[in-house]
Amino acid sequence: MTTSTATVPGTAPTDPAKGPPPVVDHLRFLRKHEHLSPTFGNDGFARKAEAFARVFGTPKFLAAQTAFVVVWIVINLTGVAKFDAYPFILLNLAFSLQAAYAAPLILLAQTRQAERDKALADADAQHREDLARATEQRQAIATQNTAQLIDLLEQNTRLTEMTKKLSERIETLTVEMHHRMHYVPALARAQQQADQPGIQQSGGPGSSYGGSGEGGPRQG
Q1: For 139-197, how does the pLDDT look when each residue is reduced to its tens digit (9 = 90+)?
Q2: pLDDT digits (tens, 9 = 90+) for 92-140
Q3: Nearest Cα residue to 10 out of 1, 21, 185, 28
Q4: The whole model's pTM is what?
Q5: Strand partners, 19
Q6: Does residue 38 contact residue 47 with C-beta atoms inside 8 Å?
Q7: Residue 25, phi then psi, degrees to nearest 5
Q8: Is the Cα dihedral 157, 159, 161, 167 positive or negative?
Q9: How far apart are CA 211 and CA 90, in angstroms?
Q10: 99: exposed, middle or buried (Cβ count in 10 Å: 0-12, 13-18, 19+)
Q11: Rounded CA gap, 185 and 112, in Å?
Q12: 16/3 Cα distance (integer angstroms)
């Protein structure tokens, strides 16, 4: 029985032998601005105030407020209850009180959001600047390595040419030494053999001449 593991899109497949891949924090360059994330602070009242400010612009709040106003007016107009008769002064007071508190909360939230956006934009710009600087450094290193590689290739070419010339010179010297070792002694022997008949011919008449001188009759 075989089991198959599902891979989450956007993540590298896990190798059971190597374990899960390391988790990459893609917000690590923005961690220094985390203190700006809460709009009104980090305590409980701040979180409730921020949540209250976020609710004002939602469709649920508008629908609930519209339903509340309709029910309020219908109850007071139909006579079910008469705690706020026309012109609904208590309802107007409630709206005024709501506006008095909602407007500062929304403006403060917008101001803090603008500060967060500016801080995040600065952090992103700094990150991009660091990336550009690192890219320039890598390009400079790549250019330097390319120049060194070209220099090494030129030196290799020169060494190859020198090696070729030395090989040709060694081959020439080898042929010359082979010629001297084999052909020069052969020529010397041939010359020596060619000189021996001449020596014999030059010694023959002399000996006959001397013999005739010595063996001839002596005159008194």
Answers
A1: 999 999 999 999 999 999 999 999 999 999 998 888 888 777 777 677 777 777 777 76
A2: 999 999 889 888 888 877 777 787 788 888 888 888 898 999 999 999 9
A3: 21
A4: 0.44
A5: 15
A6: yes
A7: -85, 100
A8: negative
A9: 177
A10: exposed
A11: 107
A12: 13
d(CA 119, CA 110): 14
Peptide bond into 87 cis (omega under 30): yes
Cβ neighbours around 56 below 10 Å, total: 15
The closest alpha carbon to 96, from 59, 112, 88, 1, belongs to 88
Q: Which of 26, 24, 43, 29 is nearest to 119 (CA)?
A: 29
Written as six digits, the tokens of 138 are 């890598």
Q: What does the block give as tokens for 143?
A: 């250019």
DSSP letter for each residue of 96-155 = HHHHHHHHHHHHHHHHHHHHHHHHHHHHHHHHHHHHHHHHHHHHHHHHHHHHHHHHHHHH
Distance CA 118, CA 184 (A): 96
Helix or strand or coil: residue 19?
Answer: strand
